[in-house]
Amino acid sequence: MIASAAHWRLLMATILVLMASAFAAPHWLRAPDLDESRTLAPAPHWPQTWSGLRPFRKAADAYVADHFPSRPHLIGALNRLRLLVGVSGSPKVIIGREGWLYYNDGSIMAPARGIPPWTEDQTRNWLHSLAGRTEYLKAQGVPYLVVVPPVKEAIYPQYAPGWFKLDPDRPAVRVARLARQTGAGEVLYLYDPIVQATARGAKTYGLHDTHWDGPGAYAGYVGLMTRLHAMGLTEGPRPFSDFALVREHEVNKPRNMALMLGVASFVHIDFPEYDDIPAEALAQTSYLTGRQDWTAPHVIETGQTGKPVMLMTMDSFSNALMPFLLSHFSRIVVAHTQDGAWRPDLIARFKPDVVLLEVLESGLSFVIEPAPPPSPEAAKRIDTVVTAFYAKRRPPPPALAPPTARQAKAIAAAKLTDNCNIELSGLSRDPQGEVQLKISGWLSELARTNTDPVGLVRLEGGGRDFTASIRVDLKRPDVAAVYKVPAAAESGFSGEFRLPGKPAGSYSASVYRRAGGGWIACRGRNPLVAP
Predict the structure, then answer these.
(1) CB atoms within 10 A of CB 241
(2) What global pTM score does this model have?
(3) Is residue 429 one of the residues assigned to a domain?
């Protein structure tokens, strides 16, 4: 069937109307507020050679897509529809329940989920750095505090997606506790005062923003000033009634995730902000560099005579916190962590009475370096506590057991090979008196491919015979290089095993793996003695 001329005229007219509307709409319909948190594609440069046509076309496509006149309208309308059905229009925003939005820094809220858990070395090194900074300042008579606001999902987990589970021993909780136990320094995690204020009915974080709002910042302020007062540094926190609600009816409220989605113009933004108006009138700010934005290093002369000087390295959570702090200090020196979380230059210049590092809990792992080394005494305390802590959490090693019939058959058929080396083996007793075997080395069939990575470890002696499974596929590029066999790069093994009972005596260790022609065995050269 051939379309009529009228059909084609109608189709062309419709297309022209849509194109004209797309270009005309921005002139009579205000674009919704949109902040994609990225740089839009720049205008392309005309190609100078034929080979430049292809890159020019790609750059032109990107520019047109980013600068199409009705683009903000289309993004906002589409993402509003997506939001209504619980679908995010931005990889940086996670849609929760009942309209709550949560920020995705790429980790999918991993810090609050405790994923991945901090390793023993990571925790030890973090506490070493905290102790180094603390001791450096203590030698000058200056206290040091790491002040940690919680992420939004820690305070409002009930509105997060169903798959989200808050880890009760997430890194912020753990390092705060271990810092106390080791004496490494002060880590003030503000979760308790904020979650308590939330339970009393205060709305402490906004639905559409990543940050705490005025009541949330006040709860954090109470926790901070209570601690500083207990340390004898300042007076205690002032009542909430001393502070005034500001910008109540302004449209331009904190709403960063709604802006990322382009829906800020379509949703109600509820984000109360508070200020200390008399203290703000007295305060005067001077900048230390050519920059003059809130992230630039600056000094606030508060006009509060006779009060201590504070130096604070901070992130964006300080914006709502700062109004509550003004009346407690005569001078506040402020620097963003993007310029360095440890500022000995500002410490030497301004000689503060207290130094604070304010950092959101998701950023804890990034702000503790550099630091002066801790004293040997502090390092020893930290190492002892951290080692014991992780030893309790570490699952017990698998137990050696008498060989099954299948394992006994494999052991009996195995042929000894020289293509191996048991490099480390030893027996020791754990605190409960149980004997443990540690063994590592390599065992290769030196073939083009590896037959099976699962092998056996065997311990025999004194009429006793025990085995357990062990993988023989750890990376050993050195073995492959020596024997010129690529597959031998996966021939390493390493493991720890428990020996049932508490036997003493002498034992020998062996490792087995399946090869193309049958099982092969590697026997340890030295006897092992159970202590």
Answers:
(1) 6
(2) 0.72
(3) yes
